[in-house]
Amino acid sequence: MRADTLPGFLGLVAFLVLSACSTPAKRLDRQARELGLQAGILDGRRFRHKLYRKGDACRQGRLHVYLEGDGLAWLPGNRVALDPTPPKSCLLPLMARDSSPAVYLGRPCYHGFADAPNCRPALWTRARYGQVVTGSMVEALGKLMAGRRCRAVLIGFSGGGALAMLIASRIPERIAGIVTLAGNLNVDDWTRRHGYSALDESEDPARRPPLPPSLFQIHVAGGKDDNISYRVTAREVARNPGARFLLVPRLAHECPGPQIWQGILTGIAILEQK
Fold first, then answer.
1. Pick the CATH number of 24-272 from 3.40.50.720, 3.40.718.10, 3.40.50.1820, 3.40.50.300
2. Of the candidates 55, 54, 56, 45, which has an alpha carbon nearest to the alpha carbon of residue 107?
3. pTM surpassing 0.90?
4. CA–CA separation, 40 vs 9, rounded Å?
5. Residue 195 region, left (φ>0) first, then alpha (ψ -120 to 50), else beta?
6. Which long-range contacts (CB under 8 A, 24 or more apart) does 193-202 make?
7. Confidence grade of residue 149 (pLDDT, cut at 50, 70, 90)
8. Averaged over 213-234, what is the pLDDT?
9. Average pLDDT of 62-76?
């Protein structure tokens, strides 16, 4: 090896070693920090939740709560992941563009807590939308809003959309609205269509009664999403009186780009005033 290439080679080796040692939770912490978000931890019901915060909760009676997708529940070869935390979030950049006070509320056992007491793999596989998960998130959200006169807008990506619907059904009086991005609104249909194991310890938004029309709903679906069918989303949206369905023809299973997101934020602000 030439002497002048040695520093670059050593730098590459150091980068690969550091990347291998970096956990998904640490990578999300770094992503949030680079976006100017503050990290914290909040206790729920028997679980701890990672929190990323922007602004003072409930300022002007508003709080936007971001709910992540399912992350890495399974590994290739049908193996359960030891840590379901996603290596990168598409929601954190959206939250950074949100001018309203906002928090990113992590799920039980995610963000480095997979080995914590009460955690078990079922909570990020078959029971990922179960009452144990939603109950702890409801309690954590209640602590965030305790003693403050405000209502939350739940913003969920993919499986976080399912959680948004289920959480809202438990505490509709504390929720102003719901926004789902490629949201999994019919869990049974999703597992059947992909040939996945049934999530038999989870609740399914499609099996719950429609949410009260006092809660506004915006459901964004992608025309090129091969994970969540926009046709199924449209059908589930039609069950909820007054819910709005937005199809983005060229969007795959991902969060919308900045221009579309800014339009959605504008729509949220208008609906919050009604």
1. 3.40.50.1820
2. 45
3. yes
4. 37
5. left
6. 193/229, 194/227, 197/125, 197/126, 198/126, 199/125, 199/126, 199/127, 199/128, 199/129, 200/126, 201/122, 201/126, 201/127, 201/130, 202/126, 202/127, 202/128, 202/129, 202/130
7. confident
8. 97
9. 94
